[in-house]
Design a protein that fits this description.
Cyclin A, domain 1, 2 strands, Cyclin-like_sf, single chain, globular, mainly alpha, Cyclin, 325 residues, Cyclin_C-dom, cyclin, Cyclin-like domain-containing protein, two-stranded antiparallel ribbon
Length: 325
């Protein structure tokens, strides 16, 4: 008797026998259903991954919150100036937060060195453009405050403490799957842009360090859909991804993101100055002059009297708006 294959928890009622290739099965069902199955499987795999202890952040110390926010601000400036994907900042913050929480009380190095090396490692592992920065270049960015040996030693310490788990399930990965599930891409284009922007803003807030990345992504989509008055039926496939056990956390993240968006919107409307298209107010520009201007701001980042928290003196004051996808 032919055996059936179960995909994403659903029985195919004998449609696929054990000797039939999976690709042949896919040809027998609508493409849209294949997309749903694949996205659900990938989503479940990422949810299982985010539950691992190695990716959990149990707490974050309030005394580092200001320094963390400023360093995050600088990181967005850096990746914009270098033409890198902004999602790298979220990955770098995952390294940084996990390391600091596990090493608090045992750290022998400065917070800025940990953050700088976290960004360096994230670029090395996840840069889609293939662009990397040698350790000596990172040393130059710090103005010589840390040499190449400091960077490489810190990199090894990071890898050991993180257990070599350098592919964290960040919210942007979940958002990409939501994008695949969207039934009307033309209608949802603005929703994805806003959701991506909200996820970028969430990186600043230590409130989200203890939340599941999937909850943050779903909350961002929910807030973005509400902002753009998206019809509920278009979002149905995405809402089906919600895990009942996480419903309270998703609701908390949604409320927090809504507050953050409202604060940003009020500040934007009250500020007559031109607004740049990124959370840090850094204009993505191809012109070398603009890149050089952004780079000059970085020269001041690692020169501060407060070496414990490395006060960032180059933080820009322009208001934040959604970046262009």
């Amino acid at each position: 008797m032919p055996s059936s294959i179960v995909i994403a928890g659903e029985d195919t009622d004998g449609l696929l026998s054990s000797n039939v290739d999976k690709n042949e099965y896919r040809q027998q069902i609508p493409h849209r259903d294949c997309v749903r199955v694949e996205c659900r499987n990938q989503w479940n795999a990422l949810v299982a991954k985010e539950q691992r202890a190695t990716y959990k952040i149990q707490h974050f110390f309030a005394r580092l919150e200001t320094a963390r926010t400023k360093l995050c601000d600088w990181a967005y400036q850096f990746v914009d100036a270098a033409g890198l994907d902004r999602g790298i900042v979220s990955i770098a913050l995952s390294y940084f937060d996990r390391y600091v929480c596990r090493q608090m009380g045992k750290m022998q190095c400065k917070i800025d060195l940990i953050f700088m090396t976290s960004l360096y490692l994230a670029i090395k592992v996840h840069s889609s453009s293939g662009m990397t920065f040698p350790a000596f270049k990172i040393s130059e960015i710090t103005g010589g405050k840390y040499d190449e040996g400091h960077i490489t030693d810190m990199e090894l310490s990071l890898l050991r403490v993180l257990g070599w788990q350098v592919n964290p399930p960040v919210p942007s990965l979940f958002l990409a799957l939501c994008n695949e599930l969207g039934s009307d891409q033309a209608t949802l284009s603005e929703v994805w842009t806003m959701a991506k922007f909200l996820i970028e803003l969430s990186v600043y807030d230590v409130f989200f360090t203890g939340a599941n990345p999937s909850s943050i992504a779903l909350a961002a989509v929910s807030v973005a859909a509400n902002i753009h008055s998206t019809p509920g039926e278009i979002m149905q496939d995405i809402r089906n991804l919600e895990v009942r056990s996480q419903s309270d956390q998703i609701e908390q993240c949604t409320k927090r993101l809504q507050v953050i968006y409202n604060q940003w919107h009020i500040s934007k409307c009250s500020d007559p100055r031109p607004v740049c298209h990124s959370p840090t107010g850094v204009i993505r520009a191809g012109e070398s002059a603009k890149r050089q201007k952004a780079a000059r701001r970085l020269d001041h980042v690692f020169h501060s009297e407060d070496t414990r928290t490395n006060r960032v003196t180059g933080r820009m004051n322009k208001k934040r708006t959604p970046s262009t996808v």
